[in-house]
Design goal:
By secondary structure, the chain is of the alpha/beta class. The protein contains 17 helices and eleven strands. The longest helix is centred in the N-terminal third of the chain and has 25 residues. It starts with a strand and ends with a helix.
Amino acid sequence: MPRVAFVGAGSVSFTKTLVADLLAYPELHGRLELVLHDIDPRRLEVAEALVRSVDATRSAGAVVRGTLDRRDALDGADYVVFTVQVGGHEATLLDFEIPKRHGIRATIGDTIGVGGVFRGLRTFPVVCDTAREMTELCPDAWLLNYTNPMAMLCSAVYEGTGHERIVGLCHSVQGTARQLGDILGVDELDYEVAGVNHLAFFLRLRDVHGNDLTARLGDAIDADPEGLGRTVRAELFRRLGFFVTESSEHAAEYVPWFLGDEEAIEHFRIPLDEYVRRSEENLGEFERVASAVERGEELALTRSNEYAPAIVHAIETGEPVRFNGNVRNDGLIANLPDRACVEVPCVADRSGITPTPMGALPPHLAALDRAYLAVVELAVRAYLDGRPELVHHACALDPGVVGQGVSLAEIWATCDELLAAHGLQ
């Protein structure tokens, strides 16, 4: 019986989504063991009750159990879904408040930038320890990582643990494809996306009849100057010629042209400190779900477009599925650094997960992605090599920070305060 272990199962809304999708496949009914792990006893209790409810609603016949022991969850697993947020809301507040005092702005702050670097530093030990335990307890299992900073965490596992079977999963590609379909009035798109997580680009954008939709997308943007036109993604599309995968508020953090410009922030309606608000909402959502579960309410289930359930189904049944995954660059994108974590089309089937070589990116897109990957490399090496000075260098070279015109002295002070506040010194 295939075992799916959820590490960080206390992220109950996301766990519910993934389990509901997984148990929607009739072919997997009566065949799965779902093992839930979290370090928070209350969150684990809620997650287990929630998953049992989903299983009953789906009539899926899964074996469900929870455990506070991560090794117990990993022992014999075939798939490990990693959804851990180290430090929770309190750590998120520090990642925003301390940089802000030194003049450094952020919107989401979970991928690169100061927030991404420090989220990575907090999470590296947990994801790497998980991967090391997997080499002992379930060496053939796939580590399906949903936690950000995606590229940093996957790179740390590749470079620091020896566990090869890891893929980073995000919803930015399929989510943006759906949005583009709505904008263009097209039910089904033929697209190809590559780059790095949250800074990948639609290299091909066609309808199913082979008609290129790039010019049509430009016309749609021009036709809505006060709506779609006043977004970071529209501006990047105008200037770069390719549509970026991540949302506008998030995309503003990866390039140097927006967060340092008051007029740009106002014109493109960039919501500063957005993730703080979302984090607060997540706390409320947990309490809402916990109350519903404790009252025995049956929660509404819908199908999402998350990749992990489809990957498990594909490997178990042999029915292939195509998705975009974050994997090591072993000749996949020619003009990005070898062994860096890149986002490319992949195929999952009974043989596992196979990434697709993409050749070279357009040179200006590759240049943007190389700047991003420089931050990733420095943050990962800071952890793996025990070199805290590289934390300062990662933040000082970050494109979004550079574009804000903050002095090196302020960047160094920000990093020193955050290292102390998070107990990372």
